[in-house]
Write a structure and sequence with these properties.
Layout lengths: L1 E5 L6 H12 L5 E4 L10 H9 L4 E2 L3 H7 L6 H6 L2 H7 L2 H8 L4 E6 L2 E6 L28 E3 L6 E6 L2 E6 L12 E7 L4 E7 L3 H10 L4 H8 L5
Parallel strand pairs: 1-2, 2-3, 5-6, 6-8
Antiparallel strand pairs: 1-9, 4-5, 7-8, 9-10
């Protein structure tokens, strides 16, 4: 099976559509979103609609949990995440859809157990697993053959004790110097992953964000070319 993987869209509708356009010509069996559809940028409501009205299999991220009140958030973070604007534009049906999302998903693909988390297997919403994480030796004991993670906004592929650990990076707000919208494709038939950098009109997104109440930190990051 060929799986499309996206994460951390953060209200960047143009980036999401660029990735989905790339996916269209790749003969994928399914598409999976690893959370954080909302926050930071200015089109969280539209991103929710795009995902909810599709066949994309989706789990919750820490930004969704923050909005719903299940993850604590300081006033400073709330402002940086642009959550007040997100809440103002969210409909009751959208909030209900977000509330119904699970924080993880497990499935078997080609006789390999696969797990999907936003953060980590031990803390599905908030733990960061960076490429230099000290926890990689703990992954084989979990019993999964493939583990998909998001949250760090950095693309990553690791092989540890027979376990494939894949992070597609951030679709809407990369922090690893990637150009364009980051995503990935995993092919279970050969265990290979392909990283994607879908180009889109970043300048137009920045202009729109400046006219809205988007996070200035996010706008500045996009203006710097999605750098670190």
């Amino acid at each position: 099976m060929r799986l499309g993987l996206i994460s951390d869209i953060h209200g960047n509708l143009r980036a999401l559509r660029a990735v989905l356009n790339e996916f269209e010509g790749m003969e994928l069996d399914s598409i999976h979103c690893l959370g954080d559809m909302i926050g930071y940028l200015h089109q969280s409501s539209q991103v929710i609609d795009e995902i909810a009205n599709s066949k994309i299999q989706t789990i919750m991220g820490n930004h969704e949990a923050t909005l719903l009140g299940t993850v604590p958030c300081s006033p400073e973070r709330w402002k940086e995440y642009n959550m007040e604007t997100v809440r103002e534009h969210l409909s009751e049906s959208q909030r209900a859809w977000l509330s119904g999302l699970k924080v993880s998903r497990m499935m078997e693909i080609d006789a390999r157990k696969c797990a999907f988390f936003h953060g980590s297997p031990w803390n599905p919403l908030e733990e960061y697993i960076y490429p230099d994480s000290s926890r990689f030796d703990e992954f084989p004991a979990l019993g999964y053959g493939v583990i998909f993670l998001g949250h760090t906004h950095r693309q990553m592929l690791k092989q540890v004790g027979g376990v494939t650990i894949l992070n597609p990076g951030s679709c809407g707000l990369p922090r690893d110097g990637s150009s364009g919208a980051s995503a990935a494709v995993y092919d279970s038939s050969n265990g290979k992953a392909t990283f994607i950098h879908a180009e889109y009109d970043v300048a137009a997104t920045i202009d729109e964000a400046k006219l809205s109440k988007a996070s200035m930190a996010a706008i500045e990051r996009l203006a710097q070319g999605c750098g670190t």
